[in-house]
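User: Predict structure, ligand S-adenosylmethionine.
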Amino acid sequence: MLSYQHAYHAGNFADVHKHLTLYAVIDYLLRKKTAITYVDTHAGRGLYPLEAPETQRLQEYREGIWPLWQARAGLNDPLLNAWKEALTSAQKAPASLTHYPGSPWWLSHSLREQDQLRLFELHPGEHEQLSAQGLSPRAQRVFGDGLAGLEAMLPAITPRICVLIDPSYERKVEYQEVADTVVYTHEKARHGVVLIWYPLLPSDHHLTLLTALKESGVRKIWRSELLLREPGEQAHGMFGSGMLVINPPWGLDQRIAAAMEEITPLLGTDTRYQAEWWVRE
Ligand code: SAM
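Assistant: Predicted complex:
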């Protein structure tokens, strides 16, 4: 039984970290004409009105996209400015932040003729909302398990593939399931770019995923983390957001670091960004 609904968290600091990284990766991939298959294994609703009762309940966007939006006129970093332009195009009126776009929107908005996009969602209500979004006609929405769905698609029919794996980790075993799927994906699409999001929690469950991947033989794994608070400061709740990128495009680390230098002070005085190669080439 799935209970997680991303609308309660839409636009929070983890979304900023995840979607900025995704945007930067897509931006690199678009520099070549060869076709890309994009896969979003855990899609959610696709677009989140900030006024929705679920989003208003926790208002997590106030510690995420909101301070960035308020500072938008003075942003200097080119990646951040390009991202802001895309974000602005998702608004009903360009001057106000009314919606926060989820990963299906970020993947769909720059989809070209030659590209494909498959969006998996297993929650019936979330899938219904995703199906109602006005995405690209080439965005195929599938009601089903995203990890199994991804594996069934491999090898992809296009020369390149880019996968986002962004589970809710409601079940502890998902950390291992994600690692197993990543290893399988790497076997079938050695040069595929795979992005994996994970939460930083006091329980440190994400170490299952990190350790499994380190021991798997998969190479070129880059890791970045955005920490709102220091580990151990609070007994409960997510204190940071983690991203792994397998086969990151060349220069991604520096581009994200430059954007993060501008973002972190806007998110809070204790906010910190760190990145490293988890497994080198
Ligand atoms: N990727 C989205 C974004 O960035 O906007 C947010 C996704 S949210 C963290 C996780 C989503 O995965 C939820 O909507 C949940 O219903 C869905 N989900 C959970 N288990 C799934 C599974 N096995 N296959 C596909 N979707 C699943």
